[in-house]
Fold each of these.
Amino acid sequence: MKGWRGSRQGGDSASSPVAVERSLTSSSSIRLGRVQPQAPGHRTVFCNDRDANHLAKYKGNAVSTTKYNVITFLPKGLYEQFRRVANLYFLTISCLSFTPVSPVSPITNVIPLSLVLFVSLVKEAFEDWKRLQNDMTINNSCVDVLQEQRWESIPWKKLQVGDIVRVKQDGFFPADLLLLASTNPDGVCYTETANLDGETNLKIRKALEKTWDYVAPEKASEFKGEIQCEQPNNSLYTFTGNLILQKQTIPIGPNQILLRGCNLRNTEYIVGAVIFTGHETKVMMNAMNVPSKRSTLERKLDKVIATLFGVLLCMCLIGAIGSAVFVNKKYHYLELWISGDSQQFNPRNRFVVFVLSIFTLITLYSPIIPISLYVSIEMIKFIQSTKFINNDLHMYHSETNTPALARTSNLNEELGQVEYIFSDKTGTLTRNLMEFFKCSIGGETYGTGVTEIEMGAARRNGLNIKEKTASNTAREKGFNFDDARLMHGAWRNEPNPDMCKEFFRCLAICHTVLPEGEETPEKLRYQAASPDEAALVTAAKNFGFFFYRRTPTMIYVRESHVEKIGKVQDVTYEILNVLEFNSTRKRQSVVCRYGDGRLVLYCKGADTVIYERLASGNDELKKISREQLEQYGEAGLRTLCLAYRNLSPETYESWNEKFIQAKSSLRDRERKLDEVAELIEKDLTLIGCTAIEDKLQEGVPSCIETLSRAGIKIWVLTGDKLETAINIAYACKLINNDMKQFVISSETDAIREVESRGDQVEIAQFIRETVKNELQKCHEEAQHIVHGSTGQKLSLLIDGKCLMYALDPNLRSTLLSLSLSCSSVVCCRVSPLQKAQVTRLVRKGANKITLSIGDGANDVGMIQAAHVGVGISGMEGMQAVMASDFAIAQFRFLTDLLLVHGRWSYLRLCKVVSYFFYKNLTFTLTQFWYTFQTGYSGQRFYDDWFQSLYNVIFTALPVIIVGLLDKDVNASLSKKYPQLYKQGIDNAFFNWKVVGTLACFSVYQSVIVYNFAIASSTTGLTSAGKILGVWDISTAAFTCLVITVNLRLLMMCNTVTRWHSISVGGSILAWFIFIFIYSLVFVNKGTYFTIYVLMSTAYLYLLAILVPIVALLGDFLYQGAQRWFYPYDYQIVQEIHRHEPESIGAGLLEVGNQLTPEEERRYAFALLPRERSKHTGFAFDSPGYESFFATQQGVSAPQKPWDVIRRASMKPKSKSPRTSRH
């Protein structure tokens, strides 16, 4: 290999750390030589030629997910910290404390700020160190690269664009590769994409026929192709490119691309060419943080801090004005200035006195804004997430071994204020376990089963339908069909056997399912992209059309009873073209050739898109089938239409040329393919339709009913038919017969008549006017009902086509107003974009706290658009979970997540924030009162160390304990009385009224503490007969303050455990221990021996008892009157259940003994440490990664290839015993 030899030395140098870093940070430049200039729209890669690719300066394959390095850690880390306004404020105060105008020592402000910064930077360093270890593991993994006509193992980080690599079975792809050859027949390989999207279904990839022979290293060394492809992007499911080989241009699509992070399955090895490396791979371009979300409480916290800063400025202005007025020559004996050297108190220049006094007092009063607030809140939220939410057994799903997972700790309290929930249906409200239930063929309906929805509807109408007992025949998973007319070849006796045959063949051929296992009906398993597809292919098998093998160009079906009853024959169908399904097309088509040369297009998709493409005529069949579709929808079934079209060879050849041109295009390939598909997906003949049942998840109706009682409004956004959505809504108690229902649908006779004329402009105008009129009519009626005395609840049902026009800026406000008047809203036939638009409409338009919950990739936009995103780890992979803030396994767990953890977190954090402001305001006001007795000079009342340690030690721990363990009622009562949740929606515990009330008590208590202490200065005498000095009074006042604010915290608690008592007692004890030592050590200050002097008098004991009692008397009376005359809802519940024993643990939910030994083992395995970094090099956490930790903790777990790579590249560490986390 000349290219390798010629660049080997340069390649080694390029792989050095310095060169890799340079390649990662510099942009690609264009140089002339053998390489053509890189066009903005695509890149050119020369395979097997490092010299040519070196000139293009492609990025190396080393990845770095760290935020810092040794040089940038300190400056960048400090920059990140000082982006917070609070930290910047304290930095300013610290700088002012070094100036001559500062009345306090710099250490007073520098030490607390340094401590906060140190803790934050240590946390950042630890997280970045873990990311660095991760990167090193990934970059040093080995892969076989073609060198000198042989395979040589090199680290991933030395891989370069254009290299030819070999990946063995179960190995991970080190970069984005073009599949050249495979050991499987026809260049096929199977990949698992669990690290990309969480899906464990195998995906088939097929090499181009021209490159099938490049398997051996000797043959692969001859490969000299040129790849022209798109520039690096983050689209995981698309790829546009061409391979130029031997002067022939061959189109490349996603089916020829192997993405970094996927691994090879059921294939001995593959050979591929590197296209994208390192940070330019698709997976790394997707590996970015979820959009940052801030809770509502944090935003209100900013406003309160701004208000406190305004109070601080007012206090400073009062003091500064007083100082400017106070300075006068008549006070010459005070020596405020000497010979004019000091300008701070110079009476000749009162403006200078005013300005300097402002800076002095800002420094003096700076503790009014709590410096440790953010650190304390972050610590509390982190523990709430990791120890409480993640460990809650009530949200652990034993069937799938899935515990709840808090992916962020920033939004804990937001869970306690949610007013609107936007939910997907399939896989979220339902199980996403699809079963073929009914079908219609040629206008004849088949299937005798009764769905859960039909039984529920019958019960609503007063009928009693008994569920049919299942026959003794064992049912296969995905097939719950009961009708002897189609089974065991009986379909041959039906009026339309030829249509039945087309129906079954369409099910068996038109799909992308992969068979796996022995080619027998009992042992073969289907790997499908969705449960729907698996159910349809399973149905075909049960009807006698057994799909058992596929290659990239052929599908093999074992057909029974086609020619005569009992005869079985293997039939091969050549797959010529596959027009894939997407959310825009809503259909999938396959062009196949029979053995006798017959060309057929089979198409399946949503009824709306199939009916638009049917040939004219046969209106009776269309009408009957549409009625049957509506019946299936009313029964809660998911429907698809099946159609076919016979093609002449001339028609197909003409169309295929256009298809190949579109597929070879480097620009707008997807759009051009859709346009070409429209040319052949027309004049279809309707075969029939399928109806698949997806049962509701366990506990969904009771969960929705509970959440509704909590004041939460639930919207369902689904892609299903209106009838299906309505009946699902009835089944899960989202709507009922007592509600007034507003239905805005495009499935009306008037709209169908306009659509039948085919004028798109007329259709759009007519639907827009219809939607406008319907919205105004419904809105007026809704307002009349809302303002009336009936109290009737409302519900809105709207489909996607009408929603598209309703979201128009001119109609948006009417839609929003109508929707907010409704208790529940159901949007059907909506696209992923519309889901996100509706969520954003309520979030921004109504300014309400929103939560979105879903399980699939189509829910990601909706999840990220809401305040809080919840992902369901279900059957559609992990895309929703990866984009979410919280992950649960079942919809019913929302009850515990919101009503228990959300409400507790909101209540606790409100108390934490309120208490911080209270104690800091009280402390600062005592200093403020002292200013009036010092001639507004800015003289400090407390010692510097008193001020420094007040927030850090003497009042720090109790408030954290309250933030973790305080609870008003236990978990069972929180769910028994969901109305308690409404106080979070109304923000009853952190508003301006609460802040104002606490401010009043701060003023009162500061006055009591200060005046009692000052009073003792005029009457108090030491044991030696001397009056008490200023530092004696200061120490006594601070003692009273510490006792008062700590006891005040206990009065705020609903639950007082031993931890509360220990923390409060320990904080007060810490003050006394400190002052005993401090009074002896720091002999150069006025505080020397003060505590011992005070303890020799009765005044300290009297103050320590009397001051807290008098200071807290106002709080006691206020809280008593409030609880007696204006109680909160939770206080009423407390009184109702006050004689019941309290649950142990104060809200700390841990694993109990109610699990079986097997469930305990699985639960322990589920709680093992997982990958913390969001950037693993494989995009997301590997499903097998936890088994590495499992072996360290003695939990049995199967070996995975990923573990072998991980352990092989990690240095052995000495094992130390680890304590159990529960």
Amino acid sequence: MDFPATQPKPTADGKIIYYPPGVKEITDKITNDEVVKRLKMVVKTFMDMDQDSEDEKQQYLPLALHLASEFFLRNPNKDVRLLVACCLADIFRIYAPEAPYTSHDKLKDIFLFITRQLKGLEDTKSPQFNRYFYLLENLAWVKSYNICFELEDCNEIFIQLFRTLFSVINNSHNQKVQMHMLDLMSSIIMEGDGVTQELLDSILINLIPAHKNLNKQAFDLAKVLLKRTVQTIEPCIANFFNQVLVLGKSSVSDLSEHVFDLIQELFAIDPHLLLSVMPQLEFKLKSNDGEERLAVVRLLAKLFGSKDSDLATQNRPLWQCFLGRFNDIHVPVRLESVKFASHCLMNHPDLAKDLTEYLKVRSHDPEEAIRHDVIVTIITAGKRDLSLVNDQLLGFVRERTLDKRWRVRKEAMMGLAQLYKKYCLHAEAGKDAAEKVSWIKDKLLHIYYQNSIDDKLLVEKIFAQYLVPHNLETEERMKCLYYLYASLDPNAVKALNEMWKCQNMLRMANLSYVYIVFNHVENLPDPGKAQDFVKKFNQVLGDDEKLRSQLELLISPTCSCKQADICVREIARKLANPKQPTNPFLEMVKFLLERIAPVHIDSEAISALVKLMNKSIEGTADDEEEGVSPDTAIRAGLELLKVLSFTHPTSFHSAETYESLLQCLRMEDDKVAEAAIQIFRNTGHKIETDLPQIRSTLIPILHQKAKRGTPHQAKQAVHCIHAIFSNKEVQLAQIFEPLSRSLNADVPEQLITPLVSLGHISMLAPDQFASPMKSVVANFIVKDLLMNDRSTGEKNGKLWSPDEEVSPEVLAKVQAIKLLVRWLLGMKNNQSKSANSTLRLLSAMLVSEGDLTEQKRISKSDMSRLRLAAGSAIMKLAQEPCYHEIITPEQFQLCALVINDECYQVRQIFAQKLHKALVKLLLPLEYMAIFALCAKDPVKERRAHARQCLLKNISIRREYIKQNPMANEKLLSLLPEYVVPYMIHLLAHDPDFTKPQDVDQLRDILLFLYQVMSTQTFWNLQNPTLTQNLKT
């Protein structure tokens, strides 16, 4: 390189300054533009120099020193400052490793000056950006800032540099800018003696959510920087958290209040940054301060629950300590722990086993909100992927469907319904998943047995929206219902049937909207508030004729599902108020409309069901694919149609439907034929006039079933003829006469069906057949059948045997007893004194323990059957007032003692029959006293059942008196208090009660009476005189 020919200028200390060729002296005497022009040439010169140019380095040393003078470092012109900074950066590069500046103060001023110039990196569109980038690149490549390690206050420079770089980084910078910044900062961290708290703060502050949201690029820069320097910076981070978390020195940093946010971000960046911090968190989890524990739980929930976290496996002590917070005494801590479980189950299925036991405990938490969130946690995970929740977790949700709080029950029921719809109805995860949650449909329907109207309404809503969605097309909806019904357990089937019956009661009770509104308030949630709303609804209906007609159409038997949907939407639209987002009045009306609207069943739906059943009969249905056998599908389909024939009889009236039912009547399956007859009975009122061809085909089939079908078929056939034919007297006579003539006690197996048919005929048409039946009863039933034992029973000592092992003769005798009762119930009078003789016969059978002839030819199990039949017959006759009056106290006592029969099955079945009649208020009050005799039943479950039956009957009678003002006229026959004398009478005349002084005999009786009489429901608090007398 040529040396300058220009005359050098001495500096203030006498040194000669050489400028590059063509560059004149740079002083404060020239303009800024000229200074910039000359500096550009100096920049070019230093840019081209390298470390090996020893002569040039020596030549330009005075110039290098001159560029660090106050004139340049304090120059107000930013272009001048930028050019000087570029020169200084090159000077550090050229003279490395020794800087030409020996004064520490000067070095500090220079680096602070260079740092300030780096702010120009912010504007990438600036004409000077390339020079700023060159400055950054040069500093990073040379690691110029490492010179500052020799300075005592180097930290001030580094802090300023870090803050500057984090403040200027933005989304317009390319990857190179970020990399040079990282190189510059990481060299300072990794090659220094340590990172001070202030310098650490300048990095960590960018991780705080507020700063993170303001400058995402600064966050990313800090993130990469920490990852790159993890080994070096980890001890510094550990020291910071130790000072704040353990020692409580929040003054060490302005970021102390953000420690948990920082830990979360640092963990996400690299868990190794917190190797020494995690044990400190375990310490904080055990803090005595509930709010502090809550903050740590929230933090750890995020750390353990994050998708890629393996903290739970890497730090088992901390994980176990965290799980302990599920049992924390502080409610918010338990609540936060439960909320965490959802994310953990979704992101870490392997931890489900650890969580299950803790969630089990929390599902029984005394706090409603926690039990609620346990359900939300499990259901949320289950909806994401059913494999994330095990059977035990689903079991917790199942339990909560019976929670004492409505909010919890509702969440559990709705959650299960959503799982069922997703995995069973839509089959989103295959057959295994569907099988896993197949129990849900049964469980949800079982809840309909609960007393709360809220539960019932929700089950109806779930059925309409999730189990059998009403918005499906008719064929798809009926297919869904068909196979659902076939796969339900017996109790769920009963619940579903009851639900339809309740809805039908509301819809069909009366076509008058006034009746519905004012007489069915109890079928709405919060009946007190509902009373006000229904009055308002009545007023609206009175003013709007169109609305009234829509409601009448909605409850009409001929209303189709599509019409119902239109009516409900139209009524809701008219009652809606746009200015009132939450409208309790509208919600209450919707509840009523949803209960009475036929959203599932209409004529089209019944036709679709029948077609499905026909396919099952023909073997072309998808029965096996749906998980049911063809026989099961056919039988369940008929049972379904039978139930619907009660609730929607008009929907069956079509030739196509009846043709299919006739086909079922010809099938060999007795249950199928029986159900088909019952459907005809319920729906065939217009067959005779509208469908003569069906009538002509049906009559001979019904005659055949009444004569030679099964007992159940015979019963239904007789009732069907009586219900749907106008010439029923002729039809019944054509059955009665040949059957009455052909009775033969020597062939008992051929007697059962004729006896059933004759009994029901005499009950349904007493005026026509009472007299002919009297001779049949006297000459055949009593003398020839009941008073003779033609066969000898097995002497095996058994007290009970299955139905299929009972001898035909005993079965015939049981039906003969039932025939006697039906005959008397049909007559409903005792003018011929037939009831007295029948009661004496039944009493004699009870006295003889079932062996009426006392020839000892009958087996023990057959005697049990006859005792049960006799006791049940007396109880049946007692339901008719004219016969109840003639039952003597001795006969009542004999009937009551059946509940203490030596045979367990007799006691059980008799108690069930007794309870069933009492809850329907069919039996007089004294029969409720019979349950008191169960006090000495040897089986604990029977005693408990008797007590529950008694309490149930007391509750029903109380409710009946409350709901029926007219009941006050006959309180003596309804008030439960009046059953006490009958109880005492029965107990006092118990044959086993022989010694009143015997404590053992008295103990069980008194305990049972005390348990019943000590309950609040037993005593009528509104009648204090009666109550006090009875208690005394």
Amino acid sequence: MTNNTPLKELTNIAGRDGLDNLHIPTITDGEDVAGRIRLQKGDGITNYRWMDKKRVNIQAYEYLCHIGEAKQWIEDCLQQEIEPITELEESMRDGYVLALLANFFTKGVVKKIFPKGRKLQFRHSDNINYFFAALKVVRLPQIFWFELTDLYEKKNIPKVIYCIHALSHLLARRNIAPNIKNLIGALEFTYEEIYATQRVLDSSAVKMPDFKGVSSSLRKELNEDVGEYQLHSPTTPDLIIEEDDEESDTDYDNRSHSDSSMNSAIIRQQQLEAHFINNPRNMQKLKICQNVARAWLARRELHERQQHVHQSTLSVSNLSRVQAQARGMSLRRDLEEKKFTFESSEDWVLKVQTGARGYLARMKYQNTLTHYRDNLDKVVKVQNFVKNKLMSDAYRKLTTDTNPSVGTVKNFIHLLDDSDLDFDREIALEDMRQKVIQCIRENTQMDSHVNGYDIQIGLFLRNAITIDEVVKSTGAFKNKQKQRRISQLAANSLNTNPYSLRGIDKGSRKRLDLYQRLAYLLQTQPRYLARLLSMTGRGDLGSGINTRLIESTVVTLFGYATNAREEYLLINLCKCCIDEEMGLVGSTQEFMRSNYAFMKLVVQTNRGAKERTFFRKLLSPLVSDIVNDELLDLQTDPVAIYHKAINDEECQTGRTSDRKHSATVQDALQDDEVRATFVKHLCDLRERTTHFLQAITATVDDVPYGVRIIARKLRLAMEETFPNEPQESIIRIIGNFIYYRYLNPAIVAPEQYEVIDATVPPLQRKNLAEVAKMLQQISSGQEFDSNDIFLAPLNEFVKKASREFANWFMELTNVEEPETYFDMHEMNDQISTHKPRVYISPYELFHLHYTIEQNMEDLELREKGPLRSIIEELGPSPYYPTMELPDSMLCLTLSHPSDHIPMDAAARLLVDSKRLVIYTIKIQSGESLKSILESPALPEHEEAWELLKATEFIDEKTNHHHSYGGHGGESIATKRRFVKLSQMDPPLDLQSLGFHQLKVVTSRLLLYLSQSGVLSADGGYQQIINMIARDITGKNQRRMQRDGELNRVRQTLVHVKSKQNYLIEQRNKYEDYLNICMQNLAMKRGERPRYGLPFTRQYFHVRRLRKAGCEPKFGSYKYSGKQLYERGILMDVNKLEPKDYDKISIILSMDQVNIISIEGTYARWGIPSLQVDMPYENLLKTQFEGAQTMDVLDGMVKVNVNLLIYLINKKFYA
């Protein structure tokens, strides 16, 4: 086959196809081939494959040049030098340079560049990933991307260089980075560098990318027009081949067949020269072909220059500036011309614009109407959808916004008008509450009257008994000295023990009342006792205080929870104790380790009669089954079983056992008999424990409520205090409380809790202890550890049973609140006809007083708290550690401090204010309620108000339903129409008010409520708007709540009236009893002769009264001042000396029961006589208050109260 030279091929192509579609396969002119490497045979090349080797070296050379181009472009971008070309492939593996490059053209993508290191680390892949993220941002097509392993593991480094070339073209087109340069031919490398590069390329076996076509490929991927011409033809060869005769000669000398090849080459060259030189036509074609080649080179040079210009930032900037100035000048000139034209024709332009706009608007409106008419059904659907969306959004704002606007509330204010029961029942409820409070106040006053009668009866009986005792012991009074002594003894008998709370004097009654108030406060305000019990558990009460006595006193205060009220209050105390202790513990483990006083309290009070019935019903069959089984043995210690086997063997045989007496657990279990017995005991223990477990978990409703509600409170408090604590830990605490604190003692000591009546033998008690131990392990949810290694075979059973026990514990905590369970509310004590009583010893009471007094700063945190006030009124406690008091019990009768129940007129005013605010915002709108109230009322507002009044305040005759409170009375229309602003003023008629007056009344009401602290004025009275919004959103819930409150208040009112009737009856009984007693005593005394000794002062006094016909019915006695002074009754006479007392006459008489008349006569007083009628109960009241003396006869005479009562009792009631 003959070898065709490139020139011959050019000749053939030109001759065959002409010059129209001529393609130039090679370039012969060396000076026009910038960047090309000439393949020239060197002197040292003797192989005939020198051309192929050169071509391979050229491939490696060009690849190194492309790396150099990428390196120089990166340095131009980063403005810093990077590694040399031959080292760049290795240095780029860590992605550090790529990350810097990514940060250059996309700010913010690269978060943190992992620095270079001696070794390549996996975190360097983050740098490469940042580069990929930057490529994604600039939208480089995926076809140019490389894989992470291509660079990180050097699987395809040429693809990486190719990606950088494509990126440079993309960024240069967007003026983000400079153009990449063509350095082929401009760089030089050693033969070793080129050879090493080629070896790497050969070993990687990767296809070399088309670096020359990267620009066109990028345009194609970006769907851009390539242009009318291309600089490079895809078939244009890159090599210029020149054949040298000398090199050919050398080849001929080195090979045996070189002569024939040389001859063939010479012949081909001669033929080619003859073809062109001898044929002018072919020569012409060759010239044309050369011209085409030169033109193509010139165009390429021009294009490169253009690219150079565009790549120059200064040139581009100058060109852009010139273009911008030219465009600006042109636009300004056009604008000036248009402005001049429009200004000269302004009127005409305005008319044209107006007409055009009008026409367009009318056409648009007509088209819109036509479109809506054609799609009327769709329009309605859209409107409904939009309305529903707007309404739902507005309602969502109403329900979710903290402070909804007035407009939002106004949009839904109509929801409050659905029924007359809304505000009307609110008014009825408040009225009924006020009635209840008024009745409670009346009952309190009546109760105080009854107590007063009780005191009077006690005083009267005490004085009467004192007289009888004196008369019986002394007989007749024979001389004045003895009479005076007896009078003093009678008066001294009224003195009471300072520690006594049973006296009928004012001091004793006050101390008793204060102690009763203290007991009621400690019962109903559990925070004080909760703090006290918490301090008791921590040992912070101080010296001289008996903590055990405190715990027993607390139980005594609540009467051992023997009735529903005391159990309810004790449960509240325990709940408060839990809250108090939760603030002091840091973890559930710490809570488990502590021994709290309130737990003892709960367990102790829940073991009463009804709780013992529960224990007996639950545990009696199970415990009896174990106790009655004499052969049952649940011993689980192998060593103990081993010793028992030895003892049994020796007892049966009468000989010493062959077994050794000292044995370990392993030794014991090696014995077959011991091992069999041990396994049997474990099986029996598991069976018995299962029976207990099944019986306990089958009981839920029978478990005492107190234990269940405390367990519920404990669970809720744990979940709130330790939200991240696992559920198992909380269940473990509940199980410890329910089982270990409550059930376990009844299993271990059943006879103490009346579970069984018999005595438990020692062996059976050990069996019960083993069962209790198993149940304790199950309740704790923990398996047996190394401490109980011989019970480890039961761990599977414990694990399974723990889940069952845990479910039972959680089921027990699902219980209703105490208020619902006991049906208790805040007015229970006010409506109960029987007051609660507490029986406590004086020693316990004084010790409690002393404890509170010593720890007041820790118990009462407020300076003027109720506890501090009571203790300050009581004064120092009479308790001291060595104090001895008689063994007696005090009965403290507790009552609610009704003086602290105000007539809550503000609540009624708040309801009326909300109603007036609703009327106001229905008529007028504004940004806030305050702005509405301050803005003027317009005529249209007045008209709207008149229309609202016509519908709201209808005629009373047509509205007879829903009378107030359901008991008749005012109609609903009347209640809406009239607003009672105060108790003294008449109701305000809203029908007579104008809208402006309505706003004035509303503004004043709101101002009063804000000054009273009921309402806040912040945000323009936003708080009352929030209240109305809550009324709207929670209307149904509020209705149900209000109906329940109405029923409860009605029942409370019935109970209060029942108590009122009871107190009235009790008062009448006390009053009748007192009157009858006084009358009977007086009548008995009246039957005796009243003359006394004849011819005495008393004798003539009575005879004179009889003659005058004015003798008192129950007697009259005349004394001289001296006589009364000597008896100690008369203490002092105004402006008189004792020596003149015999000139004073004092007459004591009683014509009506219980009315004592005292008359005094003295010549120098200037008036005939002084007289005063004094009810006997006033004397008793003065004595009760502890007064020793009192003034009578208009202050002229001072007498001893006790001795005067003694004399009156002696003369009129004895």
